[in-house]
Amino acid sequence: xxxxxxxxxxxxxxxxxxxxxxxxxxxxxxxxxxxxxxxxxxxxxxxxxxxxxxxxxxxxxxxxxxxxxxxxxxxxxxxxxxxxxxxxxxxxxxxxxxxxxxxxxxxxxxxxxxxxxxxxxxxxxxxxxxxxxxxxxxxxxxxxxxxxxxxxxxxxxxxxxxxxxxxxxxxxxxxxxxxxxxxxxxxxxxxxxxxxxxxxxxxxxxxxxxxxxxxxxxxxxxxxxxxxxxxxxxxxxxxxxxxxxxxxxx
Length: 250
Description:
This protein has 250 residues and is α/β, with parallel strands linked by helices. It has two domains: 2-81, 2-Layer Sandwich (Nucleotidyltransferase, domain 5), CATH 3.30.420.40; 91-240, ATPase, nucleotide binding domain (Nucleotidyltransferase, domain 5, 2-Layer Sandwich), CATH 3.30.420. Helix content is 36%, strand content 25%. It contains seven helices and eleven strands. The chain has helices at residues 36-43, 64-75, 102-115, 148-157, 178-205, 218-223, 235-247; strands spanning 2-7, 11-18, 21-29, 53-58, 80-81, 91-92, 119-124, 127-133, 138-146, 210-214, 230-231. The strands form two sheets. A six-stranded mixed beta sheet has the order 6-9-8-7-10-11, with helices on both faces. Strands 3-2-1-4-5 form a five-stranded mixed beta sheet, covered by helices on one side. The radius of gyration is 19 Å and the shape is globular. It starts with a strand and ends with a helix.
């Protein structure tokens, strides 16, 4: 079985594949100081399948050594860590290539493999990323903005009296409480931000690209806008499996 690992800024996600079937998945908070022993304590009772292969995408290099030691000692595997210069089957127009996040590259690769091109891949996590693939399967670029929860946290940190609030959409834009006002401002403002960006990107790329959304807030955003065609919560994990199959074909 293949273990796919996505080390992100907020969570580390694990998916176990039996062939092309995702048989189980779990997530743990990202702790940059975590050791291999710490990973073993948290995960040894949660990943019980017979793992024989592993692939890792990481945007938190501080954890890479611990993850390598954990996977090697726990499963006896030599994990494949995704690098920016891998052959993703698409042309990548990003300068320099070394600056591109492997999570964005895997998500984009996965979207093209599963849904075709042109497409816009939207990841709603710690940051909002939009990656744009044209009809010629070229990743022409994208953009990065703060994630919705990041905005809420920043408002709490940079003010003395405003609280951090639960992310939810109030019944109306105008609110008469502090919490409601913050929720309305963040959520309605974020929807406006996203819809404005998508509209601008669609104008620039043309060819009616399919919009694919993933990440923690993908379903929430999709429920409140008509700009998203597909929500795929397993886009990155599936992409890791597909990439491993591409590099090591059966």
